[in-house]
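sorry for the late reply, my laptop died twice this morning and i had to redo everyting from scratch. anyway the thing you sent over, i finally got around to it. pasting the sequence first so we're on the same page, its 274 residues, then the predicted structure underneath. double check i copied it right bc i was rushing
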Amino acid sequence: MDGRPRRSGQVGEQASARDGGSDALGDEDFAVELSVQTPVLRRIAGGMTRSPADADDLVQDVLERAWRGRRSFRAESALSTWLYRIAINRARDLAARADSARTVPSGIDDIDLPVSRLDHPEVLAESLADEQTVRAALATLSVEDRMVLALHDGEGWTAPRISTVCELTVASVYKRIHRARIRLLRALPGVSASESVDSELCRKTLVHASAYLDGHLDVETSTRIDEHLRQCPRCPPIAGALVGIKTALGQRPWSSAMPPDFVRAVDTLGNTNR
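ok and here's the structure:
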């Protein structure tokens, strides 16, 4: 454990009496489902927060809220989706105050300020291979950026699934994924950023880089980018760096084992007095 005090309330504290309806899960079944979802929930929380302790706090908060609100859950919807949405909204709420100083001013779009060059590709490669360095870079991002990277690159969620759970448009999700990757790239050693680029083709290539690498562009645009990458001396290393970021995040560098007492707290669900 990290020595930080845990909240005194038990995960399975008694909810206020409410009618659950005939389609609500029974308490024991609900508790079992929560236990099944907890490992994935904590992994996602780890990607959205800045430390394992913060991830534990977030998951405990989500489980407490889910348990108290279990009468409002309807079995025709996926419990996992319900839990993920609670976690995402709580992460946003909790980070709003802490991240206020990190918010990008209205009107400024990082996608239009691309990475200018890779001064030391070998340093970047070493950074991406080091989990601590990647975690430190992720900690500089906003919760929204960490969220889309954790879900898309870490968990392998599709943009449509992210849009449903996070209540965003699919186009917005794609844009956020690219923006977050660029921000993460800038936070790593060996990378420089500039408001200027070599050409309009370079700018367009870097704007569409993530969509190109993820296979989400139309054939005509992809062909133009293919041709540009064959001729441009600057853009291919940056595109390769974005591939490296996606690969590194696929290893879920934020993952950590759940503390034993946290596991025990989850296991008590459904066994409390009702």
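DSSP finds 13 helices and two strands in the chain.
thats about all i looked at so far, will dig more tmrw
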